[in-house]
Amino acid sequence: MRSRTANRSGIVLRRRVTPAGDILVTLLTPQGKLKAIARGGVRGPLSSRLNLFHHVGVQIYQTPQNDLATVKQAVLEGALPSLAQPGRYAFAHLMAEFADALFQEGEFSEQAFDLFAGALRGVAHQPDPEWVALVMSYKLLALAGFVTQTARCVRCGAPEPEHPDPLGGQVLCRACAALPPYPPESLAFLQGAVRRTVRESMAQPLPTDQRPALWRALERFVTVQVGNVQSWRQLVPTAVSAMQDTLRTSDVA
Ligand SMILES: [Zn+2]
């Protein structure tokens, strides 16, 4: 086997600087997720280019002995400076954590990249970044094969469930539920989250007071189906207040 060099283009999902001054990055590219290391990168020009949410073109070098590719060069292909705004940063960060948890190397490639890139642009530019994040979270989940069951109660199978499922983030029938039903708009959102286009969902934002319950359902659903998205609770202000209710009544650590 020989060493090889390749050019890839992708968005920085995750960035960590090691004590040695290396930068470990995870990129989402149209060919799938890619992890790489920029050795000594924190002291050079790569440092500012390999920033979170940057779209970069990288030249990577891979040896058969090491499964972590080395970044030799990086050029900035696109940036969304408005993502640094406090009201947008948290949602962009959540989208990146989400994409990192959902997509494996080589999987769901081009569609996942396009959807994630669109989600970041929406969070950067739309007047309601929280709504973009909710809509796109369900879209990303569906693309990865995780769909909330809304046709039947997840516990007993009864048709047309309407109540929140505080443990699994699915939907329960009246007999199985302990919480009051979702408002009709929230229920319609959950039922149509996969089928509706992004454009249709964006045109029908839910009132803000209905969103904490959906963030909570999403958090439970993702935790049960995908695994913990690490910084979830620090990231989304509304989700944090919603989570505090759950923390009081369950063993979520
Ligand atoms: Zn039931």
What does this structure look like?
By secondary structure, the protein is an alpha+beta fold. The chain has 9 helices and 7 strands. It has 2 domains: 4-79, Nucleic acid-binding proteins (OB fold (Dihydrolipoamide Acetyltransferase, E2P)); 82-249, Recombination protein O, C-terminal domain (de novo design (two linked rop proteins), Up-down Bundle), CATH 1.20.1440. The protein has a 5-stranded mixed barrel. A hairpin with a 2-residue loop joins strand 2 (23-29) and strand 3. Helix 2 (86-102) runs antiparallel to helix 3 and helix 2 (86-102) packs parallel to helix 4 (129-143). It is elongated, with a radius of gyration of 20 Å. The termini are far apart. Bound molecules: zinc ion (ZN). Residues 153, 155-156, 158, 172-173, 175-176 line the site of zinc ion (ZN). Zinc ion binds at residues 153, 155-156, 158, 172-173, 175-176.
